[in-house]
């Protein structure tokens, strides 16, 4: 399929990054969010990153303008009626995602592929909310999207080869490297990453070391670019908790139980960098 128009749903940290990369790669993009404010924030963020890329002489002023001209803010899902591919990046919650997919199924043209950037939820179940499970697929980008090279492509039980091929080609057009992953809890990336982050939270909870020292261990001891607690704040503690819950429920294995401290922080609204406080404090 020749992809011309794309809609990205959710203008948060992932959605805005995905929309930016799609527009920079020449696709016409609707960036959709139900909140006008979130949409404005997402668009401003993209503009800031493109301005920085011009300053660093990675792109020209004309390329920046062309990219911005290809990006269209949208607050109504019906804009998806003209799209070939939709990439959903709303909150990590099955009920919310299923509702969005059911609506998209009614709005989008018959040929359209519906992809989810979910970090852990079953693609097969998301596909079950539609009448086109063969055209539903996981397209899991890594954060920050403009920088990270990987995309996990997740096949649901009924995803067709044609859908897979189209999304694999699209990932190439976005200059990403893709890997094929089965639809099992946490896929590959978060099945490996999230238990490490959760263990770091347990180490803090049990008083093994301070926040800073736990991060220093992994940065200087293992050459990770960010310590696990900084990374958790960066990903969002709500997202980390949702993923641990999916792993715990999906495998029924106590090794995936979320650390009570992680849950406590999320309940307090300490969601990490995006809310100004997590394991660290941000801003003023
Ligand atoms: C949860 C999931 O489902 C899956 C996931 O995504 S898990 C998370 C995966 N991501 C990671 O593990 C990220 C780990 N961290 C890193 O790789 C690096 O710390 C980082 C790339 C984020 C930042 O790099 P750094 O060297 O520490 O900092 P810094 O020098 O400020 O940034 C390097 C570049 O990245 C850019 N950058 C940093 N944060 C960015 C962001 N949020 N968006 C876009 N660009 C960003 C900076 O602008 C900078 O670009 P320039 O070269 O133009 O200056
Ligand atoms: N954070 C990360 O590192 C990664 C996250 N992911 C996945 O990406 C998805 C998004 O995560 P992230 O960007 O971090 O989350 P954010 O909270 O930053 O963004 C989610 C956005 O979606 C909006 N939204 C919620 N419901 C709807 C809806 N029904 N229609 C349109 N917009 C909606 C939210 O608006 P409002 O705030 O107003 O509710 C918010 O702007 C999740 O599935 C997550 O698991 C994947 C890879 C990495």
Automatic annotation (TrEMBL):
One Pfam family hit: 3HCDH_N
Metabolic or biological pathway: Lipid metabolism; butanoate metabolism
Residues noted as binding NAD(+) in the record, renumbered to the chain: 10-15, 33, 92, 97, 119, 143, 274
Highest taxon, organism lineage: Bacteria
Record-linked PROSITE patterns: 3HCDH
GO MF annotation terms: NAD+ binding; oxidoreductase activity, acting on the CH-OH group of donors, NAD or NADP as acceptor
Keywords: NAD, Oxidoreductase
Oxidoreductase among keywords: yes
Protein name: 3-hydroxybutyryl-CoA dehydrogenase
Coiled-coil intervals: none
Domain 3-hydroxyacyl-CoA dehydrogenase C-terminal: 186-282
Family: Belongs to the 3-hydroxyacyl-CoA dehydrogenase family.
Residues under site feature: Important for catalytic activity: 140
Gene3D superfamilies xref list: N-(1-d-carboxylethyl)-l-norvaline Dehydrogenase, domain 2, NAD(P)-binding Rossmann-like Domain
All copies of domain 3-hydroxyacyl-CoA dehydrogenase NAD binding, residue ranges: 5-183
